[in-house]
Amino acid sequence: MIDKIKKTIHENNLIEWGDRIIVAISGGPDSVCLLHNLYQLREEYNLELYGAHLNHNFRGIDAQVDAQYVANLCEELNILCFIKSMDVPQYAKEKGLSSEEAGRILRYEFFDEIAEQVGANKIAVAHNENDQAETVLMRLLRGTGLQGLTAIHINRGRIIRPLLGVDRKSIEEYCEKYQLSPRIDKTNLESIYKRNKIRLELIPYLEEHYNPNIIENLVRTAEILKEDFDFIEEQSREIYSGLMTNQNEFSLTLPLEAIRNLHPAIKSRVIRLAAEQLLGRQEILEYKHVQNVLDLVEKGATGKKTALPLGLIAKISYENLCFTTEAEESRAYEYELPLEDFLYLEELDGTFEARVFERNQTQEISRDKYCKCFDYDQIKNTLNVRNRREGDKFYPLGLTGSKKLKDFFIDYKIDRDERERMPLVCDGNEIMWVVGLRISEKYKITDKTTRILEVTFNRGDSE
């Protein structure tokens, strides 16, 4: 198996020398197998591995035992492990989400939080070949387009899936061979979720009555369709770049006649790319939203418009299709941050506190996402707190070089209206900390640090 995983890593450029990788570990066979394999590859790739386990609080004492198993496994492998318990059922109820979607959202928020703390650049999750086949079937039954049938991608952003080409049987045999004794989630053996029914009922039925190689064939289908999808997507982006004009952070324009002359497959993708560019998120528009925009294009009546998700508006202006975010920009704010005192921000209903102390006065640096420490000797200008400005750049901890703040927010999937309110702690114009997300590489604590600046943000009830 290790050779197969190495081949997958090499062919898809999943891992590079010196990567710092968060490994998502549920305690089940898939994630335990993933951790064990990456552990065996750590010296060959000079990897720094970190375990991450989220207790969803669905399964009472069994979930607690899972967490203990993960902690023990990581301790045996001498891997730093982060374990967190969250009330996923309550979150799902508050947000009106399914338990699966709520769990997915909170898991990846947890992984991002750990990545910020340790400076990790990859997050490895344990989806396998069977998961891929189940996803293709599930989306086919629900109804989807070409992109949906490409199913689970082997990498997306900093998420990597080294086991996607390995079947579940091989994973179970691997765990048995190395006596890893993974935990078994009994709910996976019950037909209580749609995916479980597909796994336990539909696929076995198809294997027995239609095609014993159904899993392999579904995976191959997804791979073929992804090649087609990638080609069409590449062509669409080139065409979109040539059409898009008058673009700024809040609006862009496309010529009506040019859109009308596009092939339908390209036309719908151009609409989706416009939404993606303005909102900084993929897969925002559903089929019905795209059709509403295309109806506007065909009619071409100036002044007509349609509302799209997340405050986006598509409207006709003479010979152009315009996309705009109509929400008003938040009022710009900037305040000097005093030392050894409190700063209250009405815009956030929150308070900042800053203090300076000698390095030898502390034994441990805070890991709280709202309390960060900086090398005070690197600060050259007046400390201040403000919201973002056009053209802001940032040096995220753990990365080399600067990154546009807008791109940083897009990577973290921060909604546009939230970006306007996000506080930034700055040294003059230099961003030191995007509060709640990440500090700057330029102000991190090092062995040469003699004085430490600690900044704490306490959120008000409205947060």
TrEMBL record:
Entry-linked Gene3D superfamilies: 1.20.59.20, HUPs, Phenylalanyl-trna Synthetase, Chain B, domain 3
First-tier enzyme category under EC: ligase
Domain (Lysidine-tRNA(Ile) synthetase C-terminal) ranges: 383-455
Reactions listed under catalytic activity: cytidine(34) in tRNA(Ile2) + L-lysine + ATP = lysidine(34) in tRNA(Ile2) + AMP + diphosphate + H(+)
Keyword tRNA processing (UniProt): yes
CDD domains, A to Z: TilS_N (cd01992)
E.C. number(s) listed in UniProt: 6.3.4.19
Record-level GO cellular component terms: cytoplasm
Regions that span the bilayer: none
Tagged with keyword Cytoplasm: yes
Annotated compartments: Cytoplasm
Residues annotated for ATP binding in this entry: S26, G27, G28, P29, D30, S31
Domain notes: The N-terminal region contains the highly conserved SGGXDS motif, predicted to be a P-loop motif involved in ATP binding.
Family of this protein: Belongs to the tRNA(Ile)-lysidine synthase family.
Protein function: Ligates lysine onto the cytidine present at position 34 of the AUA codon-specific tRNA(Ile) that contains the anticodon CAU, in an ATP-dependent manner. Cytidine is converted to lysidine, thus changing the amino acid specificity of the tRNA from methionine to isoleucine.
Protein known as: tRNA(Ile)-lysidine synthase
